[in-house]
Fold:
Amino acid sequence: MTDQTAPDPAPGLDPAEEYRPPRNQWLDVWDQFKTHKGALIGLGFFVFIILGVTLGPFLWTIDATYIDIRARNQGPSLAHPFGTDQLGRDTLARMIAGGQTSIAVGLTAMALALFLGTLIGVVAGFSKKLDGPLMRFTDLFLALPLLPLLLVIIMLFRDRLRAAFGPEEGIFILIVVVIGITSWMNTARIVRGDVLALKEREFVLAARSIGTPARRMVTRHILPNVLSPIMVSATLGIANAIITESALSFLGLGFPSDFPTWGRLLFDATDWLQQYPERVLWPGLAISLTVLSVNYIGDGLRDALDPRIRGR
Amino acid sequence: MNLKHTLLGAAAAMALVPVTAHGAAHEGPRGRDGDVKIIYWQAPSIMNPYLSGGTKELEAASLVIEPLARYNEKGDLVPWLAESVPTVENGGVNADGTQITWVLKEGLVWSDGTPVTSEDVKFSWEYCTAEGGGCAQAEKYLDVTAVDTPDARTVVVNFGVGKPFPYGPFVGAQAPIIQKAQFADCLGPKAPECTDANFSPIGTGPFTVTEFRPNDVITLAANENYRDEGKPAFATVTFKGGGDATAAGRSVLETGEFDYAWNLQLAPDVIGAMEAAGKGKVVADFGTSVERIMINFTDVNPDLGDERGTAAHPHPFLTDIAVRRALSMAIDRALLTEIGYGPAGTPTCNVLPAPAAYASTANDGCLVQDIAGANALLDEAGWMPGADGVRAKDGVRLSVLYQTSTNAVRQDYQALIKQWWSEIGVETELRNINASVFFGSDPGSPDTFQKFFADVEMYTNNFDGTDPEAYMANWTCDQAPRPETQWQGNNMPRYCDAAYDALSAQMATTSGIDARAALAKQMNDMLMQNYVMLPLTHRGRVAAHSNTLGGVIMNVWDSELWNIADWYRIDG
Amino acid sequence: MLTYAIRRLIIAIPTLLFIGLCIFLLLDLAPGDPTAQLPLTIPPEVKEQIREALGLGQPVHIRFWKWLVQFIWVEPLNLFDFLFGTTFADGWPRIISWQSRSPVMDIVVQRIPQTLWVVGMSYVVGVLIALPIGIISAYRQYSVFDQVGTFVSMIGYSVPPFFTGVLVIVIFSVQLGWLPSIYDTTHRVVDWETFVFQLKQMVMPVMVLALQTTAQISRFMRASMLDNLNQDYVRTARAKGMTEQVVVMTHVLRNSMIPVVTVIALGVPAVFGGAIITEQIFKVNGIGQLLITAIQANDLPMVQTLTFIFAILIVLFNLIADVLYGILDPRIRYD
Structure:
């Protein structure tokens, strides 16, 4: 156990200090990743979704907000492959436009929450002095009622952000930050719990005894070993962010109502579940499959980054 | 003692009350039809309408406590606890409208068996006007100076000013009679301490509260001392709250778990499909609710600081009547209504659409959409399209911020109207705000409908009962919300015209329904022809009842449950 | 460990007071108005009188102090009176809800049975399903069981309850007519038949909620087990000839529990917080519905009290989790 060192997940370390394997380590990781079939499929699908929502508008040129009132409530057809909604807006165009927002919100909010959660969790777990204050701070955030908090944030910052970044970007920043700062607490507590146990393990003791500085201890020994709960948090975090965004917009706290997102499309379509079931299908599938693909990518990455598995 | 009163009460009821027309076919002993289940998707939190003015509380309380007179389904006043409706003709109202005399029905008893007296009526007024009580219905008792009780059945209400329409106090679901003995210690600041009384008031209505769970469920049982023999037909009522409109509609129309569902504001094809399941019927009727767009006459540029949204700074382009008119012409009201409300709405061009006597027909031209005409009008007024397709004049672009509360139908309206306005070269940014913030009057929030820090906003308003005097006075100059009034007031557009104020003052002193109707129409037309607001849809109230529930008569002028004593079970 | 727990409990008091103050200030700052839900036909002057009567005119610090005294002194006194029939609390004003003008704690107590029946039960069911799924999925990584478990739990987690709830209602209540779509909170279990009815009305909300819990906890369980299954001590234990059962269920499981215990402990206060959307869909009217209606109606005493109780539970259960860490892994020391 004492000889255990993790692969270097944090680029930017001084390369001179590192033992250089004959082969680039990342190639090893990729080789291992390739053997994970689920991860490959997941990655493929995720790339497809990203390409679809970014390049989609060039291929499918109908405007997502254009209302063709004569064509409302239509099923799938050549003109509208995914059908139209109750106002005659093209569902495919709305799925593409909604995907851009949902994926952007999901990824950035998740990244922000993960960053905050990991940072606070590691620092609290590692430093005895900061553990108490940081965890009480986490308790405070867990206890704050979400809706009033959102109302306050929106009241204080919406107009300023709107003035600084324009109506859409301003709201985007607001939503990402809101979701990020209200969903890091679970990650923080989970990471801290693991770090508390890890730092008493022999390899950390050994590293400490040879005088490894705290920063390197964290980046080289602690972080790689808490990777799996972080990966799980990441997967769940994306799903959470996409759904939370839809909850925000249906409460009137999110994007303007003519701004489609997957969560919002799913919410709006739920009322029509019995009449037009296909309308729930598209956003529901898109969200689930995206989350599923991120989950498989996470699984594959975790395996690939674990030298004990890679070595086998 | 109790039994004696019961017998007396029953005997009196038999002697005095004629059998009503629809009661005739469904007679039988009281409580013969078991349980009736009602679902309100917003749950009542209290049974005392004086402490909460919410519609859900009013309607729940109307099962238990009753007013002297109320409105029937046609909007006519009918006597309820009073023998008859006092008028100038029958001598119940004096000539200058400063005094009205009500006479209680004979032999009325509370559900605890004690007699109802004029003291109880007087006490209801005292309760609502007590200092520090925060009575939600204080408006109903406005200008009442004294209530006299010459004998146990007679109540004389005196007003400080002549009231052309003296039917505010003790009329309608908003101003019922409560029992003095029960509430005597609950005046003013002590009102909240009387939890038991507020949750299960003793009333004269067909039911009494068995258990009240705030914001959840109320169970009620037939009032053994109810004045009509053989009524109510149901022995118990389960009054469930919570959920959403879709689920409530489903539980009546599709699963048949409930008998009556209130306020089903659902997309027409959703509710249509539910009704097709064949378990129940949808009923709708029209009151005075109008969904309208308010136009802001003041500049709301944030750079103006404290003077933002005040009369000191007129709006850069909405003060041009051509622009307001063009905005109105571009809207297809019929299509909006069809998509948003279906049979529960009709397109309208009036902010005062009902009662029929008050409805103007002078503005019906707006029902036809005219995009070309709107474009021509704007061209003529000098608003020319720029490179981005948005019209501008002297550097002022026609770009509006359009706000409303969060609600699926309103968001569909916003999307459609945004598209039509883009066709006449007006750029629209949409914003929807949580209803509890939008309709709140927190002066600290920039998002209230009263502050109106947007160019146009959309919501529904209506008025109680059938008299529009107070409603039409909403658009007088002094009603404009402004910093000096802590942003309170009903004149959201900040429209101000001395001629309009004069008409409003005239209406306050005019009696006679024809003269009042003429004035109301004139005021309505003035608002409409100046495009101060753009009415869109005259909204109805929609409810659903099970096929096995009979006797339901939809009433939009009073509580929907006004005639629950006449409801009965249809076998089958 | 005991001294640690006691020390933490003592620190918890100022922490909670601070959290309470933060919540109070936040609610005070939030835009909103208890009269917002009243019909527009009620004139602004009357609304102003209503706000005055609710005590909104007083300064913030006085209102906070009043609430604090009521919460930590008057309400416990009332409970004492209720239990022992004394009258110590007479004359002290209790925390009064602005919506119903009745004591907040009475309503909270009224809501606890259905919240525990539905949300509590779903949590228990969720955890009980999640743990074996997580363990087996990790032990037989990439087996069919693991693949199916992953697929179902990720779909379950990514599809929100506002959709799954409506879906099961449409299937089981509308189409098949097997289960009631509206939860009857007045129902009392007295015999076998009423118990069956209670089960029937619980099954849909419990399942919808348990799906979320199961998905989350089983993922953490699986990931954590996988981390440990490859450790050297597992090889050592096997080499020593221990049975697979002992290796997995005793050694690996115990070492894998830390993140899972954290997640479970974070979830327990949430049980009390209720499930806002699911309660709304099935009309369970538990504490979640109470909280959301109170927030919508700007019923500040109710929101403040509920969130504060919630805060107490959070602090308490995080403390329990910290103590459990020490039991699961004695190397963790807090001195």
User: Anything to note?
Assistant: Residues 90 and 121 of chain C are 37 Å apart (CA to CA).
